[in-house]
Amino acid sequence: MSAVAKDAAPAAITLIEAITQALAYEMRNDASVVVLGEDVGVNGGVFRATAGLQAEFGDQRVIDTPLDETTIAGLTVGMAAQGMKPVAEAQFDGFMYPMVDHIICHAARFRYRTRGRLTCPMVLRVPWGGGIRAPEHHSEANESIFTNVPGLRVVLPSSPARAYGLLLAAIREPDPVIFMEPKRIYRQYKELVPDDGEALPLDVCFVLRDGTDVTLVTWGAQVKETLEAAEALAKDGISAEVIDVATLKPLDFATIAESVAKTGRCVIVHEAPKTAGFGAEIAARLAEESMYDLLAPVERVTGYDTHIPLFRLEMKYLPSVEKIVAAARRTLAAG
Fold first, then answer.
1. Phi and psi torsions of 89, nearest 5°
2. Residue 138 bears catalytic tag
3. What InterPro entries does the entry give (predicted)?
4. Helix (H) or strand (E) holding 255
5. Class of domain 206-334
6. C-alpha–C-alpha distance, residues 156 and 249, integer Å
7. CATH assignment of 12-192, among 3.20.20.70, 3.40.640.10, 3.40.50.970, 3.40.50.300
8. Which entry of 102, 138, 270, 307 is annotated as an active-site residue?
9. Is 298 helix (H, G, I), strand (E, B) or coil?
10. Which of 44, 51, 52, 136 is the one with CA 20 to 30 A from 18?
């Protein structure tokens, strides 16, 4: 099924098809939405996220840019400043760094700099994370760099339905959004995603599984392994609550704190390096605000403090079901 076909009946689609479906819906209903990036038009993007969009909307709204991330970011900020709603694509997570000047020095500061007179309604879509046997610039989990920047939202969907609803919300948001898409699960499974234009709320966590013994907090591709770990724990009578953070910045800490108040234990799972990863922020908040609810130290299951290794060791680097289960068991044994 073409994700951009009009009047199509609801069907089970992959995460990448949900991205295409959301872009097409918003472009049909808002003429100010434009898409730009390297190969997004004729070729439909390196992962085919924009396949068919240029044929439907033309090359003035689906724009193939030069191979120049700095220029892409500058064009995106300029378009947003002039009342458009640009959705730019960085082909890979490691290609974001030339964009940082425009994103941090300008996009993130428009509202502050003008005391609210101007905003920057732009989205930067980024295929994110490891697990596809690609070199290190194509496999980075660099979300914590952007969560440290005031004025940015950082969103990381974990399923086709959440990708569709959260991307719609991101495009409609008046401030800049870094929208990181876990490429490892782009085509891993399908969900029924009605093309109804219903956005999901930004800035909230999603509780995917209720539990009473331990809270498992994660985002992106690691949601799959975390849910599988919860299933494995359940076979031994351990009830794990699973939280998909989804919007890392601003963080919905209240949902996490409420869960930890119930379970008394917390395991945070992410594939980024451990040191200064976003899990450290959540752990610090728990230490500051939920210390007396904790029955055991917070555990983190993360990548290592190195660049992601190539090919043979890649899956050893990433969090696994076994590592998550072992961390949960340690929290239960500690108190």
1. -120, 130
2. yes
3. THDP-binding, Transketo_C/PFOR_II, Transketolase-like_Pyr-bd, Transketolase_C
4. helix 253-263
5. alpha beta
6. 10
7. 3.40.50.970
8. 138
9. coil
10. 136
